[in-house]
Amino acid sequence: MHPNIEQLYTIANKPTRRILGLMSGTSLDGLDIALCEVKDSGAKTALKLLEFTTVPYTADFKEKVFPIFSKQLVSLEQLCLLNPWIALQHAAMIKAALMCWDVKANSIDLIASHGQTIYHAPKSLHPNDEFGPATLQIGDGDSLAVATGIITISDFRQKHIAAGGDGAPLAVYGDYLLCANALENRVLLNIGGIANFTYVEAGSSLSQIIASDTGPGNTLMDAYVRKHFNDMLYDKDGIIASKGTINLDLLNALKSDSFFEMDLPKSIGPELFNLAYLNTAQIQSNTESISKEDVLATLNRFTAETIADGINKCIPPGTQFIVYKSGGGAHNAVLVKHLVALLPNAKLASTMKIGIQPDAKEAILFALLANECVAGTPLYAGEKATKVPITMGKISFPN
């Protein structure tokens, strides 16, 4: 047996594995690093978060990535060069985090690397009938494994597509394995650049789970703030939005895209929801002269309404449920206030209430997927979450 395969076999048979979950989303704000202790697999999974940090991306990092991010036409050379380069940057961030935590690299069994999404193309976004959905994350797994000396599992989304999905959202598996409850109807809502949710009905099986993107989370608000408010990266706590007035004409124009009429599950990205989308909506609604605060207030409401619309599509009227929120948007007080009003049958709480640090949630979920990749058995979600196997990811060895 090859020594690498033998090592992987040993890790797969351990009762408990230490896994570093990495996540960098469409907000492009930094790398989330979650050190997790994962016991067993499948329905018996128990996960403990040992350490967590977010390493902010530098201005130089962003300047290199933005020219190829969510754009149809980019430099192929730059794309090729950044694939290993991003992995090496992530490796340096991992080493610094481990040093800070006084954790030895040889005590880590696996790295679960989401990579940096560069382009997401569900079928709804491209007109070519010859091609299906596609998605691309860069940050080469081999480079990361060699640089850290740790077996790395990466490129998770490709199996989802190969098995008939869109490549997103992938949270359904972790949300079910870690958050299912026999007595409580739960919505696990993540508000990152794009908003997505998983509905886990009380006592339901994995085949009954519904998971879908709903539309923009923070992506439009963040892009607008970066363009119009000097030296600000996002609307902290929704303070700017709170000073504006919602413009109904603009709101209706923003909600008029056919994406919102599509059945669940569906996925989307900033390839659609960007400043060009906003500009078109303002022209259509004759709202180009309204104040920046009013625009941001309207974008905030747009995010809230499309999240609520998505959730309400899959939960029967009158059903009581709890929304456990995570992601950057969960800190936006104005957005949360809108959601409370729009979801009268729901209680809103942080995922911390069920033992999951909200800012670490997505990194934790990828650690769990890596655990399933080496130690689990294929489980299948239902059609409402896209029927795909839980075993995802490509394995890279350090030598």
Tell me briefly what this model is.
With 399 residues, the chain is α/β, with parallel strands linked by helices.
Describe this structure in words.
The strands form two sheets. Strands 1, 2, 3, 4, 5, 6 and 12 form a seven-stranded mixed beta sheet that branches. The chain has two domains: 3-168 and 359-380 and 391-396, ATPase, nucleotide binding domain (Nucleotidyltransferase, domain 5, 2-Layer Sandwich); 171-354, Nucleotidyltransferase, domain 5 (2-Layer Sandwich). 37% of the residues lie in helices and 21% in strands. The protein has helices spanning 3-12, 59-65, 76-101, 141-148, 157-162, 171-179, 219-228, 239-242, 248-254, 275-285, 292-314, 333-342, 361-375, and strands spanning 16-24, 30-39, 46-56, 110-121, 134-138, 152-154, 186-191, 194-200, 210-216, 321-326, 346-350, 394-396. The model has no long low-confidence stretch (mean pLDDT 95). Helix 6 crosses helix 13 and helix 11 (292-314) packs across helix 12. The chain has 399 residues and is α/β, with parallel strands linked by helices.
Give descriptors for this structure.
five-stranded mixed β-sheet; 399 residues; alpha/beta; single chain; Nucleotidyltransferase, domain 5; 12 strands; seven-stranded mixed β-sheet
Write down the secondary-structure element order.
HEEEHHEEHEHHEEEHHHHHEHEHE
CATH superfamily of the largest domain: ATPase, nucleotide binding domain
Q: Strand content of the residues, in percent?
A: 15-25%
Mean pLDDT value: 95
The residue ranges in which pLDDT falls below 50 over 5 or more consecutive positions are none
Question: Which structural class do the helices and strands define?
Answer: alpha/beta
Largest sheet: 7 strands, mixed
CATH class (first level) name of the largest domain: Alpha Beta
Ends distance: 15 Å
Total domain modules: 2
Radius of gyration: 21 Å
**What is the CATH topology classification name of the largest domain?**
Nucleotidyltransferase, domain 5
Describe the global form.
globular
